[in-house]
Amino acid sequence: MAALSPDGIRTFCNPGAAAGTEPYPPAHAAILNDAGFSAAFDEIRGWPGYAATPLQRLPGLAASLGIAELHYKDEGGRFGLKSFKALGGAYAVFRLLANAVQAANAGQAVTSRELIAGAHKGIVKDLKVTCATDGNHGRSVAWGAQLFGCRCVVFVHEHVSAARRAAIAHYGAEVIEVPGNYDDSVRHAATEAGRHGWTVVSDTTYEGYREIPVDVMHGYGVIAREVIGQMAGQPPTHVFVQAGVGGLAAAVCAAFWIGWGERRPQLVVVEPDAADCYFKSAQAGVPVAVTGNLDTVMAGLACGEVSPLAWEILREGANAFAAIDDRYALDAMRALARPAPGDPAIVAGETGGCGLALLLALQAHPEHRAALALTAASRVLLIGSEGDTDPALYRQIVGVAASSSTT
After folding, report:
1. Count of C-beta atoms within a 10 Å radius of residue 29
2. Cα–Cα distance between 26 and 21 in angstroms, integer?
3. From 359's CA, which of 4, 73, 193, 313 has a CA 20 to 30 Å away?
4. Distance between alpha carbon 14 and the CA centroid of its chain, in Å?
């Protein structure tokens, strides 16, 4: 089913999805694998301030949505950065600097604790990393650069809010505006890095650029590792995960496939209607770019081009794709801030509530609900990817400041 509904929801069941009994393919393991996820998990757990983010149960909301269980993995408190992105960009910065130190010290391994303590400052202080961002990835890269001791330049496109720019600059990065949309800023960052000898720390892959985005995705796998432990051997039937360039969705898909095997949940990739590159790519069976200003309130998902390696995972690993109108994302933020009796209040940014936005949209559309095999017995996991990363915008949408909407 792919027709646009008058109420702003589209769903597409993936004809190329792997059967639930199919083992994790070797071709996928050449991209994302258990060893990579384990290395990232072990390293990140040793960082200052690490704590597993909460997996919230929302029984009241589940009942109102006509499903058996609803869990929300709340990334809003991750390392104080208010976003899951803290796991990926910063981990890739660590890996980059650790490799540089190893190369300078005859292959001697280095830990993040050593870099944080400044033990190799003479090597890393003159290295410079860069990236393009809608906000959260740039904040993570800037934080990682500050934490591990190198310099950082972050490129933002003209639609990134002043609050998100300030949050990046807070970690010592130089923030530079680029005309156009997110994909324009990605290309500009790559060009400037080539001119100046900087290293791009991107969450999307492109020709000749693979290793660092794979590190980013392995960092994101910490979320899935935590969820597997938190769900105590009872996997959900469905996971709804948002896609920008697809790094988070691919990491969640791969880590659950590896960790849960035949019991892995059905994976539904959710995007804004105005930036639906994965939806269109799934329909075509090959990567399709979406052009224009990609205007959506879900700023972190305003991406018009799939990450090729993430696409390799998701074209078989995703069971379905969905595109939704912005208004459902705003409704999701309000629903989480003002919960049903007995449910916790949750602060979710515009992209953080994307999975719930789809559930809300499905209420009035049984045909789409049936296409996603969603029933009264379904147990759904949502990836709450961000908190109020733009506090002023959050207050404008929800009507109260984040501190007033939490319990």
Report:
1. 16
2. 15
3. 313
4. 21
Mean pLDDT of 330-346: 96
Question: Sign of the C-alpha dihedral, residues 270, 272, 278, 282?
Answer: positive
- Return d(Cα 251, Cα 46) in angstroms, integer: 21
**Cα Rg for the chain, rounded, in angstroms?**
20
Kind of pairing between the strands at 69-74 and 379-384: parallel
**pLDDT band per the 50, 70, 90 thresholds, residue 339:** very high
Buried b / exposed e over 32-59, threshold 16 CB at 10 Å, is: bbeebbebbbebbeebeeeeebbbbebe
Do 16 and 321 contact (CB within 8 A), yes or no?
Answer: no
**Which of the residues 74, 85, 203, 343 is marked catalytic?**
85
- Give the C-alpha separation, 303 to 296, whole Å: 10
**Phi, psi torsion values for 157, nearest 5 degrees:** -85, 170
CB 323 within 8 A of CB 9: yes
255-308, pLDDT tens digit by residue? 999 999 999 999 999 999 999 999 999 999 999 999 988 889 998 899 899 999
Catalytic residue among 74, 134, 203, 388: 134
- To the query of whether residue 82 is one of the catalytic residues in this protein, the response is no
Cα-Cα end-to-end distance for the chain: 40
Residue 73 designated active-site: no
Task: Report yes or no: 131 and 137 within 8 Å, Cβ to Cβ.
Answer: yes
CATH class of the domain whose range is 85-212: alpha beta
Contacts of 206 (CB under 8 A, 6+ apart): 190, 308
**9-83+221-404: CATH class:** alpha beta
Domain 85-212 in the same topology as domain 9-83+221-404: yes
Domain residue spans of the chain: 9-83+221-404, 85-212
